[in-house]
């Protein structure tokens, strides 16, 4: 596998667990039509969804979630919460009243911020930061201690009979900052939406979708910056859409890849359209163990993916890299109507002789340089090239700059709020993602989802 492509690092962190579970506080009568009995359990109540307020009606988020029933809203007021949140009840909505002031802080010693192992759950309008593993983990793999996923303690290979995919999830308006593995991580989960989030300071990737086939997942309108990798889709097969995101100032903008360490080899059938993928050369980022740096889009062993109308610029090694993964070739990938500029090389084909690939094609792209140089002439869409694609010569590149600890990445600016967060009714994550129309997604402007300047301070 070429050193240009970044694969995930496979760290196994050991994190201290929360030493005790805080008891639920008594619910105040009449606040939401719910009260507690003397033994701390919720009494019988109407089937109508309730709102459980933290800390007014439950002292902690976990206490509120233990009281919640399917369809309920757990509404969290501003504060810094030092707990690892477990969502184990279907169709619950967990929402902060203020995205920037409702903070679940791992203090650099807890593993995960929020772990969702129930179907139809929505997590929205809050911040998760300073966790050793993940900010938000959504997964169909779990045991008595919580979710299991690649990179976490106790990861197991998928047994579909034992671990069917979690069906239905939504993560939106979440700020995930300075988490040691992934910011927002969907693993063995399908029929979901990841939208309008901000991920930064992740030592692996800000956003991740993996081990689903078919996925039925939509990743849209997110910002991922100052991560080792902005977005990863590993063994995440179509239908899956990555639309209108801003992946900038990471070490690698995004990857679409196959990996034997996860189920459902090979990855196939993703659509990546209308994204801004630029300036992925940031030294003030966590260092990715495989050394990837200066790459916009990497496709490693990915097959039959479509890259449409993306703006890919300012990446110091390559705009797009196609390569193999072990014996899995890149096959049938279409790159059409993309605008590539100010990259060291706009597109490079680095497939191995063991798995050389074919059928990868280009059409309508604005670009300056490819490796091999005749690639646009030998790989023309829509018919594609029937012969094995020529492999670009290896080029020498300077070693990437040394990264910084993930806890030292500067925090992002304040982010936009979920509209009417305090009053909007709960909307469980059902029947997602709905109709998706990538053909309607245009080439983005250079300022797509531009954020205010980052603060100069180090993490709190």
Describe this structure in words.
This is Nitrous oxide reductase family maturation protein NosD. InterPro entries: NosD_dom, PbH1, Pectin_lyas_fold, Pectin_lyase_fold/virulence. This protein is mainly β. It has a single domain, classed as Pectate Lyase C-like (3 Solenoid), CATH 2.160.20. It is built from two helices and 33 strands. The longest helix has 7 residues. It is globular and about 70 Å long. The N terminus and C terminus are likely disordered.
Q: In summary, what is this structure?
A:
The chain contains two helices and 33 strands. The chain is mainly β and 460 residues long.
Write out key terms for the chains shown.
eleven-stranded parallel sheet; 2 helices; Pectate Lyase C-like; globular; 33 strands; disordered C terminus; single chain; mainly beta; 460 residues; 20-stranded parallel sheet; disordered N terminus
Any idea how many domains? Answer: 1
Any low-confidence stretches, pLDDT <50, length ≥5? 1-43, 455-460
What is the radius of gyration computed over CA atoms, rounded to a whole number of angstroms? 22 Å
Mean pLDDT: 86
Number of strands: 33
Principal-axes geometry comes out as globular
> What is the number of helices?
2
As for the CATH topology, it is Pectate Lyase C-like
Residues in helix, %? under 10%
Tell me the fraction of residues in β-strands, as a range.
25-35%
* Structural class based on helices, strands and sheet pairing: mainly beta
Main sheet makeup: 20 strands, parallel
InterPro entries: NosD_dom (IPR007742), PbH1 (IPR006626), Pectin_lyas_fold (IPR012334), Pectin_lyase_fold/virulence (IPR011050)
Protein name: Nitrous oxide reductase family maturation protein NosD
Domain Periplasmic copper-binding protein NosD beta helix: 183-365
Region (Disordered): 376-460
